[in-house]
Amino acid sequence: MESQFGIANVWIQGDFVTRAVAILLLAMSLASWIVILIKALDIIKLKKHARAAQDFWHSEDFAAALTKLGNDPTNPFRHLALEGREATAHHRNTKVHLHDTLDVSDWVTRCLRNCIDEFTARIQSGLAILASVGSTAPFIGLFGTVWGIYHALLAIGTSGQSTIDKVAGPIGEALIMTALGLAVAIPAVLGYNALVRGNKSILNGLNSFAHDLHAYFVTGARVNAGEPGKVLPMKKGS
Fold this sequence. Notes:
Blueprint: H1 7-13, H2 16-53, H3 62-68, H4 76-93, H5 104-124, H6 127-159, H7 164-219
Helix pairs in contact: 2-6, 2-7, 4-5, 4-7, 5-7, 6-7
C-alpha cells in the first residue's frame, strides 16, 4: 500500500525526536503569533495617542492640554508631559540635592530621556522572541528532516525494498519538517519587521513631542512651533 504524504503520517510514523521537533515548531509558531497580535494592537493604540498629541499644543494652558491626551495611564505622551512638569517643578523647588549642579535644561532633558528609554524598552519587549523564531525555526525544521530521512533510509535498508515508490513516501514525509520550519519562520520575520517599523514611527513622534516639551518647560515657548516638519533630536542626558 502506498504511503500517503501528510503531517498526520509524520506524527504517526515518527519517533520521539520527530514528534518533539513538531511540538517545538508548533509552540514557536503560537508564541510568535501571540506576540505579533499583542504588539500590533499596542501599535494601533499608540498611534491613536500620537494623533491626539498633535492637538496638545492647540490649548490655552498646560492643564487643558493634558485633557486632550486623555486619562489612559499607559499613554506615553501623557506620561512624558507629566514627567516633564514634575521634573521642572522639583528642580526649581529644591536646592539641596546633587541634581542642583545641573541647570534646569539638562535636568529636564535627562528626565525626559529616561522616560523615553523606559518606554522604548517596554515596546521592544517580545521582539526578541520573533527574532529568535525567525532565525532558528528553519534550522529546527531542517534537523527534523535530516533525522526523518536518516531513519527512513535505515528502515528501507532493513526491509530490502529500495524501489522508488518505497523511498519516495518516507523521504517526502521527512521533508515536510523543513516546510513546517519555513512556515513558522516567515511570519515571525515579517511580523518582526512590521513591528520594528511601527515602533520606530511611534518613537519618532515621542521624541518630537519630548523636544517640544523640553523647550516649553525651559523657555516657556515651543521651539520650531512655526516649522512642525522640522524637529531637532533630544540630546542625551549625561
